[in-house]
């Protein structure tokens, strides 16, 4: 009888342990619940393509180009190591291209050009002349393109037609661009290169001419076909944007979980 009692107590103890473990696993938030929960604050991240002078692990060089980088980036506004570069062979634009920090400022080195911070593919851009260190608004920080177009890898966005179009040069006249009065660099997070939203969308800043809807420039094009109107609202710990889903007739306010520069 004593042996039977001990056996029952042992089984109850084991069963209780299994139940507790299962309950703990059920209580652990999964990836889906974590993605849909409201963030405490917007996470800000800097893309660093180079590690100790070499291409960072996880990135792969998929192409090469060479030429000059004479203008600050229009895709990653305000970041001092981001450039718009022109391939001397075919006049193709690459933006943004990031400096290798171990190359001397007046030296001929290479830059890493990415389409977005979500891509692992990099075009290695070799300089044929030193970088032009004119990054302040007083030095003409925003270059003008041919026929009023702003140069960039994406000249236009596939977006709904509006009554007008606005170039990044016009948008740069706002307080989100270079400060003309102080002649200082903009904070690169004033106009993030890309944002991730609480609804799962990944949106990248658009250079060149885009549509103007409700008086706001279409600043970001998103992976699911939607887009973002106007600037990122950074007044609160969790930033927000006016997001328009694909084929939607109205905008919604969406939280920004991650901002990239």
Keywords:
single chain, 261 residues, alpha+beta, 6-stranded antiparallel beta barrel, 5-stranded mixed barrel, 16 strands, disordered N terminus
Describe the structure in your own words.
By secondary structure, the chain is an alpha+beta fold. It is built from 3 helices and 16 strands. The protein has helices at residues 2-27, 31-36, 168-171, and strands at 43-45, 50-51, 54-55, 60-72, 82-87, 93-99, 110-113, 121-127, 164-166, 194-197, 202-205, 210-213, 216-222, 227-233, 240-244, 252-260. The protein has a 6-stranded antiparallel β-barrel with strand order 10-11-13-14-15-16. Strands 4-5-6-7-8 form a 5-stranded mixed β-barrel. The longest helix has 26 residues, at 2-27. It is globular, with a radius of gyration of 24 Å. The protein starts with a helix and ends with a strand. Mean pLDDT is 76; it is low at 1-35, 136-163 and 171-183.
Describe the SSE topology.
Blueprint: H1 2-27, H2 31-36, E1 43-45, E2 50-51, E3 54-55, E4 60-72, E5 82-87, E6 93-99, E7 110-113, E8 121-127, E9 164-166, H3 168-171, E10 194-197, E11 202-205, E12 210-213, E13 216-222, E14 227-233, E15 240-244, E16 252-260
Parallel strand pairs: 1-16, 4-8
Antiparallel strand pairs: 2-3, 4-5, 5-6, 6-7, 7-8, 9-12, 10-11, 10-16, 11-13, 12-13, 13-14, 14-15, 15-16
Beginning-to-end CA distance, first to last residue: 72 Å
Mean pLDDT rating: 76
- Nearest-angstrom radius of gyration? 24 Å
Provide the spatial order of strands within the biggest beta sheet.
10-11-13-14-15-16
Overall spatial form = globular
Q: Which blocks of ≥5 consecutive residues have pLDDT under 50?
A: 1-35, 136-163, 171-183
Q: Tell me roughly what share of residues is in helical segments.
A: 10-25%
Number of E-state strands: 16
SSE topology string: HHEEEEEEEEEHEEEEEEE
User: In percent, how much strand structure appears in the residues?
Assistant: 25-35%
SSE-based structural type: alpha+beta
Q: Give a short account of the largest sheet.
A: 6 strands, antiparallel, barrel
Total helices: the number is 3
């Amino acid at each position: 009888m004593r042996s039977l009692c001990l056996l029952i107590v042992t089984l109850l103890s084991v069963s209780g342990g299994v139940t507790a473990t299962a309950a703990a696993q059920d209580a652990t938030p999964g990836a889906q619940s974590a993605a849909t929960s409201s963030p405490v604050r917007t996470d800000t991240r800097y893309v660093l393509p180079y590690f100790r002078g070499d291409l960072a692990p996880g990135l792969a060089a998929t192409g090469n180009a060479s030429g000059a980088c004479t203008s600050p980036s229009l895709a990653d506004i305000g970041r001092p190591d981001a450039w718009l570069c022109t391939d001397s062979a075919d006049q193709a634009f690459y933006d943004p291209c990031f400096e290798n920090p171990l190359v001397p400022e007046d030296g001929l080195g290479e830059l890493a050009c990415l389409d977005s911070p979500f891509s692992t593919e990099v075009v290695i851009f070799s300089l044929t002349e030193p970088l032009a260190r004119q990054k302040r608004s007083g030095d003409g920080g925003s270059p003008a393109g041919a026929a009023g177009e702003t140069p960039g890898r994406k000249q236009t966005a596939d977006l709904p037609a509006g009554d007008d179009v606005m170039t990044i040069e016009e948008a740069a006249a706002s307080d989100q661009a270079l400060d003309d009065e102080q002649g200082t660099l903009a904070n690169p997070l004033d106009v993030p290169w890309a944002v991730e939203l609480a609804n799962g969308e990944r949106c990248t800043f658009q250079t060149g001419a885009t549509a103007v809807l409700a008086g706001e420039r279409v600043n970001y094009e998103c992976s699911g076909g939607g887009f973002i109107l106007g600037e990122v609202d950074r007044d609160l710990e969790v930033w927000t944007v006016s997001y328009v889903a694909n084929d939607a007739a109205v905008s919604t306010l969406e939280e920004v979980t991650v901002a990239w520069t």
